[in-house]
Amino acid sequence: xxxxxxxxxxxxxxxxxxxxxxxxxxxxxxxxxxxxxxxxxxxxxxxxxxxxxxxxxxxxxxxxxxxxxxxxxxxxxxxxxxxxxxxxxxxxxxxxxxxxxxxxxxxxxxxxxxxxxxxxxxxxxxxxxxxxxxxxxxxxxxxxxxxxxxxxxxxxxxxxxxxxxxxxxxxxxxxxxxxxxxxxxxxxxxxxxxxxxxxxxxxxxxxxxxxxxxxxxxxxxxxxxxxxxxxxxxxxxxxxxxxxxxxxxxxxxxxxxxxxxxxxxxxxxxxxxxxxxxxxxxxxxxxxxxxxxxxxxxxxxxxxxxxxxxxxxxxxxxxxxxxxxxxxxxxxxxxxxxxxxxxxxxxxxxxxxxxxxxxxxxxxxxxxxxxxxxxxxxxxxxxxxxxxxxxxxxxxxxxxxxxxxxxxxxxxxxxxxxxxxxxxxxxxxxxxxxxxxxxxxxxxxxxxxxxxxxxxxxxxxxxxxxxxxxxxxxxxxxxxxxxxxxxxxxxxxxxxxxxxxxxxxxxxxxxxxxxxxxxxxxxxxxxxxxxxxxxxxxxxxxxxxxxxxxxxxxxxxxxxxxxxxxxxxxxxxxxxxxxxxxxxxxxxxxxxxxxxxxxxxxxxxxxxxxxxxxxxxxx
Length: 619
Ligand code: SF4
Ligand code: SF4
Hints:
Largest sheet: 7 strands, mixed
Helix content: 25-40%
CATH architecture of the largest domain: 3-Layer(aba) Sandwich
Bound molecules: iron/sulfur cluster
Number of strands: 24
Structural class: alpha/beta
CATH topology of the largest domain: Rossmann fold
Radius of gyration: 28 Å
CATH class of the largest domain: Alpha Beta
């Protein structure tokens, strides 16, 4: 933290932290989100700021509805989500775009450009066109702070939800942010019943569409005048560049002499400003991550522009990409390759943590290649990777159960149907898996559901949820979900609801086999906490007895990163069969003492170290 002569504070912040601070300084009253990389820290940061109700809602749709309810009561509200979260919230989004808002409502949506932690790459600006919503696109944390403040005013002035489109680079990169004085908290707008506006029955829709058309026209004027849409002049006017978001910094770096139009308020598109800009340059290049959104709009408006054809089709766009695109357009020779070739970096694929309960689950599922395993979104997605390679599908939050139902039904009448397993974690089940289970029981699809309760929304950093009985702040929540009761209420027969400890390999596999043979939907609940939760008990690290170890490598199939290979050998057996052997040791820093690997070792070569007893001399 620092300060300047002006008395204003400067803080070193990520974009997510800046959005949180900007919302707080704009008089935010309610913030609701479901965790999702790269957006998670927004509401986490807000939860540490005073005077705001912050919550983890059960999914993004509910979070948006919570924020909209607060807005209805005239309070400023924010919801945050990753790009795929907006798909979940889309039904409410489309309606909220028609009702409009009372108190300012900001939807901070973080697009994982480069899909570093997501199942796809999506451009949330597409939603803004679909729903007729304005979009602010910060290029860095400073802009994220200022735009968030402005977004509330824009939202209230035009009674419209505002999309604040962030990308991974803005969310996570830190810089010094000059804070502004907190805005005076606006007086709550008085709530009055207004069914014509807030009850979207068919008879009310036409009026709302008319209101939306008037709002569109007003917002077009705002975009033309916005101080966030900035022309930076340049001496080399052969090529003018239009950019938005963090890629505008890449353009400045690549083409410092080219005129640049930065679209901070990128929807509605300020066509008048673009035309004016176009008139002063030879040709236009649109640089945008991830989808061409502005480019087709300009083409449709009759402007000749270059864009995606000369830029990468996905992922982050760098200064080198922009330079190469400019050379292609201007017919200049390609740059010679850099003199120094970068060293290849040793890849380190993500894996489950040492002691994670999922290790036991996948140890066994990897030994059942005939089973079709429909996975879901969470750490357990990693079951698709070596050494387990057991998960067949991962698509979207909660999708495992519905897909598994389809796989089961498709095999109806087959002589030897494959067993079907769905794997889903506690938080994802509560997010959008429950409906899939209800469908399984309603349709009596023969699926074995592994409900992996690890007491956290683990993949995004161990956030609390209704399953662990703690609220966002870590305090006791009034609700702790009883999964056995919940799945019974969703139609699973009591005898088909089982509990199994994935650390107890033999008992776990016995339960799994029994339920896979059953001819009804079943749920096996595993309850081992994530190693990063306060519920996890770390034990003494295990050791390998080298005299006992015969190199069978069975323990490596557990996939624990604490089991390290020390030596590999190929041996030819008397039968002529060639076998791969590996000897191991255990990393005492990583090992949590869970004993899964010990249970996988038939020779008992892995065990807790003998405790040394130190006899103390009497004083
Ligand atoms: S973070 Fe938790 S749930 Fe995820 S792999 Fe590690 S121990 Fe398992
Ligand atoms: S006991 Fe074995 S499986 Fe468990 S954390 Fe230690 S090395 Fe990994």
